[in-house]
Amino acid sequence: xxxxxxxxxxxxxxxxxxxxxxxxxxxxxxxxxxxxxxxxxxxxxxxxxxxxxxxxxxxxxxxxxxx
Length: 67
Prior knowledge:
Blueprint (H helix, E strand, L loop, with lengths): L9 H44 L14
């Protein structure tokens, strides 16, 4: 006798395909944001270390107004 639970179901297939597409897009967006945050953290760390280790440039002298 044939098992009805193993029969093909086109509606279930469509639903699973749509869910897979939705979760794939959400995963891609989360990965993109994580990569952006990681790159931003690296940039901030490099800026902090370079500011701490390198001497600060001298500020330019202010021009005096004529009276």
